[in-house]
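--- STAGE predict ---
source: upstream dedup step, 1 unique chain passed
mode: sequence only
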Amino acid sequence: MKLTFNQGFAMCVAAGLCATPVVAHHSANMFDPQKEVVLDGTIKEFQWTNPHIWIQVSVPNAKGGVDEWSVEGGSPNLVGRQGWKRNSFKTGDKVVMKIHPMRSGEPGGSFMSATFPDGRTLGNGAGATPAAGAAPAY
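--- STAGE serialize ---
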């Protein structure tokens, strides 16, 4: 089978389009961006993983027990450009964290900001700078 120039060109363009990586991402619809919840707790685990970092926070509840909250943040690449490191949160760190909670009411949410007892702050975008005179968060 002999192809004309136009047919060959069209096939190359089609092959190039098919080879383009597909960019996909999950929806953030599970979080309620109209609500904010403040968690006053202790870091249980910090997961510096792709595609998103995860922070497990132990938060005392009204019944005298402890609830574990799963908080999703940006990608390591994104938060790394804001000054975060893989040890920005350490097991046992006390923290006051603001999140957009899950719509389902489960103990989890989308990270907004965190403040440490010494005044250090980490944010998700704007406001990601340390408090005046505070040491960096990492």
